[in-house]
Hints:
Blueprint: E1 4-8, E2 14-18, H1 19-43, E3 63-66, E4 69-73, E5 79-83, E6 91-94, H2 97-107, H3 120-123, H4 130-143
Antiparallel strand pairs: 1-2, 3-6, 4-5
Amino acid sequence: MSEHVMIVASDGVADLTPVAKFMAARRLRLQAEADRIEAVKARGHVPEVCGDAIPDAPARGAIRVFQPMRLFPDGENDWKARPSCYRVRSAMQRADVFDVMMAKAASNGKPAPFTRAGGGWALLPGFGGASRLRRYPVLICRGAPQRRW
């Protein structure tokens, strides 16, 4: 009795492979698949600062983490900005094109676009950074006359 595994292809060709070689190749395949699954799960990981109530979701895509702030009364005539998220946790938002541009600029050691240092103010006079640019389509849609086709 030999220590071989016979694999027969769909065209009828048989391949006689030693068991040790077959098991080594199988381990490599299983490890590669486990690594691939782990990479997919890591893409949907929720940062610790956002809490445990948000489920992992690999299909969510790129996110940015931020701390929502609100103005609260502080004395008679003063207001103070304080975190306003549930249990003072950070919130998540899907990353848009502006977040991607800022991340690429940061990874290249350049100033963020749409800021005074990045020269965005000269390119877009009258606009105050990415937060206003995110709202720009809404402003245009609200101000545009309604067309009826």
